[in-house]
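Sample intake — DUF4190 domain-containing protein
Collected from: Nonomuraea ferruginea
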Amino acid sequence: MIAKPPGWPFVIVWSTLALVIMYWASVPFWYGVEMLLAVVLVGLPLMVYWALRFALAADRGGVTGRAGRCLAPWLITWATVVALAYNAPFALRFSLSASALGAYAERIMERGPIHYESCEWAGLYRVCGGGAEHGSLDGVPVPGSAGFATTEWAIYSNTGFAWHPGAVPQETADDIYVRIVGDWYGYHGWDGW
């Protein structure tokens, strides 16, 4: 029967789950519901499986000499929690994409609005459309500003980035902004729920 603890295939599946969760955390507004569902629907059953396999293997003496395999899921979980606590997935992805996002924002400022259906890669983000951002509730565009949406694989969310030089964007009932760095803001608009 089962005389060994979970092996490397389990570690690969567990690592994949951790990478997906960190990918969903690499945007200005995390996909929290999706992350929670992944942990509950995939992570918890995997941990129950790991515990049962480990207990059966320990009962038969099959755990000795396999410390790396036995501790790997716990180390991966710890590393993921630390990365999320410091917002490392977003910081890394945004840092690697900042120059391309800046070039996209400059293109919007120079050429004017871009239709939402027009999507392209700007660094590690898929950006769609864009136009001048509004600095207040009166709808007056902020000179030299740009805002654009981002899309993610298999998830729709009304999120994106806004470049607001010298002005803090005003939140509305539908739009929430969070300052990232310098004049960059992340925004989350109404998703239609």
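Post-analysis note: The two ends are 49 Å apart (CA to CA).
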